[in-house]
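Below is our example:
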Amino acid sequence: MKRLAALLAALALASTAIAADKPAPRAKAKPARAIADVDRDGDPNLKSTAALVLDANTGETLFAKNADAVHPIASITKLMTAMVVLDAKLPLDEPVQISTEDLDLLKGTKSRLPVGAHFRRDDLIRIALVASDNRAAAALGRAYPGGIEAFVEAMNAKARLMGLDSTRFVDSSGLAPGNVSSPAELARLVAEASKYEIIREYSTTPALDVTLPDTGRKVNYVNTNALVRAGDWKIGVSKTGYISESGKCLVMQALIANTPVVIVLLDSWGRLTRIGDANRIKRWLEKNPARLAGALRAG
């Protein structure tokens, strides 16, 4: 009897040990809390540090957040680069050779445009606007009559002509943090860029293939703005930007609720914050089309 009791006790102990070896059920991860589209005041709940939403028809401000604050603008600079090149009426089919002078020694960004290769000026504008390629933008500035110094001078002259008093340019790519502007002034720059058919077309091209002249190899580029690639926006002008000093940036002119709207988003540190902010603005306007009558909303 004692042996039977001991045997039963041993079996019970073994059963407990086996159960303890089983992995504990994992706690279900709580889904991330979605960011509300609007705040308590009914304004768009944006996470970008500075922002502006403008009715392009009337020039009325629909929403502003630190709209006069001056920030580095990174590759948003390339919109001005394209305008200055086009204003100069340089031959778009003229080949421009990529030089070692076009290499990025400031931030160390890479490019698939080989040094020594020749590309049409038109193709360099396209690559700079679609893929935000810094080497393409650098070559455009260097190949300007008088070189990069004359080009930067022309960029700043055009900014002054447009009344952009807080806007400064120091290169053609946007890599240097000295390229600065504010949402209020960038909205006017985007509106000006929208007058150029080439900028409208190239900046909203979802993807393109470029044939390298020396090897014949095709290189595919995709637009750096995911909203252009998504296809559910009607975008007329687009440009993204990023350097560490600027955070993620995005400017667009888009048709929302049948109205052309300019959106400027600066210093968005999250990987998808600028895209999320743009979508929140779009939903906000679609749900409140009366705001497009020109009422000022500041946050």
